[in-house]
Design brief:
The structure holds 2 protein chains of 2 kinds.
Chain A (H helix, E strand, L loop, with lengths): L1 H20 L1 H37 L4 E7 L2 E3 L5 H6 L4 E14 L4 E7 L14 E4 L1 H7 L6 E5 L5 E9 L5 H4 L2 E4 L1 H8 L8 E6 L5 H11 L3 E5 H39 L3 H12 L4 H32 L7 H5 L16 H27 L5 H4 L1
Parallel strand pairs in A: 4-8, 5-7
Antiparallel strand pairs in A: 1-2, 1-9, 1-10, 3-4, 3-9, 5-8, 6-7
Helix pairs in contact in A: 1-10, 2-8, 2-10, 2-12, 8-12, 10-12
Chain B lengths: L1 E10 L7 E11 L4 E5 L6 H8 L7 E6 L2 E2 L5 H11 E4 L11 H6 L9 H14 L15 H13 L5 E5 L7 H16 L3 E5 L3 H4 L6 E6 L2 E3 L4
Parallel strand pairs in B: 3-8, 3-9, 6-7, 7-8
Antiparallel strand pairs in B: 1-2, 1-4, 4-5, 9-10
Classes of the chains: A alpha+beta, B alpha/beta.
Amino acid sequence: MKTWIARQKALIDFTLSSLARRKLKNLGLLLVYTVIVFLLASVMLYTHALRHEAAQVLKNSPEVIVQRMVAGRHDLIPPGYLEKLGRIRGVQNKEGRLWGYFYDNVVSANYTLMAPSPEEHGFGRVADGTIVIGAAVARERGLVPGNLISFRSYTGKLFVFTVAAVLPHEAELVSADLLLLSEADFRAFFEISAGYYNDIALSVANPQEVRNIAGKISETLPDARIILREEVLRTYESIFNWREGIVLVLLSGSILAFTIFAWEKASGLSAEEKREIGILKAIGWETGDVLKMKLWEGALVSLTAFLLGYVVAYFHVFHFSAALFEPVLKGWSVLYPRFELVPVVDGFQIATLFFFTVFPYTVATIVPIWRAAITDPDAVMRG
Amino acid sequence: MIKLTDIRKAYHQGQHNELWALNGIDLAIEANKVTALSGPSGSGKSTLLTLIGCMARPTSGRVQLGERDISGLPERFLTDIRRKTFGFVFQQFNLIAGLSARDNVMLPAYPLGGDWRVLHERADALLDSLKLGQRRHARVEWLSGGEQQRVAIARALINDPQVVIADEPTANLDTALSREFMAILESLKQQGKTIILTSHDPLVVESSVVDRVVHLRDGHLVEGGR
């Protein structure tokens, strides 16, 4: 074992001094290789973390949302629907929700307005005449608690609110463009009469029964559209998959170019390299020693590139909010949330990336060497 | 020490360009002596050297190292014998460009996996003994012809072989450097090494350091050696 380690150490040492001979070429290769791993790893880490984040957020969302459809469009829930749903067996909690969108000309951005239930955002009840705003809104409009802000509603009336609080920065992914107001203010602003809601959120006693309950709801309220949490999750999943796909397609050109370059570099054996292999064999190296040395060469280059690329990608994604791909991966918006993703690393993803970057390069290094390494050692003498 | 019996060696056997480089060589090489294989180009000197040095196997005939018949051994075993028993000095030196003199010297020892520090010390000691200590970190392509040959000699000695094989060692050296080489050869002989070399340089074959000269022509031994 000690001899084996000493032998590998010697082979690695030789490989390193051998690589150092063509410093510029090998550093160039390492750089391009690292950039490719970095790009791939950034996309993978970012979309994975976003998916994870979305799943975490949706974990606390209602299991069933009921909307009312009129002529195929979303309409307000009229009085009486809440009571009807409450009578369905298996429904544990029901809550009428008020929310809407408002376009602010000043910053040319859409806000989401909500009249939350007190436990929803941790600020207690929002008092009449006050407003709680998302961090991106506060940033764009330059607001701090205590400031006044006015909005002209869709009916032309002017409403003035005092900023009661700014929502915490950590929640920015879901609350960047959010405005929270009291139920009375909300109804007055959008002119929604008492008893009407935008939709109804339900929680069920037994999660296994969600689909049965959904069936019962559509029987009770034939004009209802039922949205299940698992469907929302699936939609998010496919949106992120789609975005990841787009970025990967964009990247595929450069990946292909690199693959050709790396294959050419790794598999093409120069006359000088062939001569060197001949010398090594003549002075007592076995075919296996030459192969091991080249294996180390391939592994050292690709492993270094992999580790460097992955670590840089990690910092890019989790410390610099994936600045390079943000617009594509995060979606389109005027009010971009500023947030730092919680680092989530998936072992399977690392293994996949490792397999598709390190493995092919190492193999590409080995194959041509095999052919050269099995030449007779006396070739050097004859040559 | 090394005994060759009815050695024949063909290249491209069975093809239109078949060439018999050796045609029935019987030769015994004594230990601790300097033996020179001499003859014109194409006489089979280098081929004979490759068979003695376990770089290739004869087409027919037997090669014995001590009491052991090594002519039929597979490559792995031949490699093992080659690196433990023989050290090679090639005509073109065959050093690896871009590496330092010391790295080149250590190359044959890498696959053996010996102690790293001991190996460095041995390489340095060899380079010192060949007056190359100051140049150990220099890349080999920066060295003069004579220095390159001394690096090649140090490399041949790194695994402390019993036998040193040199193919046309003075072919690329001027007279002064050739004399220097013969002096090194003498000191190796005094250390108890067996030396086998090919040469048609009179400075080598007529040197008093050489104990025996074997003449070859067209793959046969010819009379007239000493």
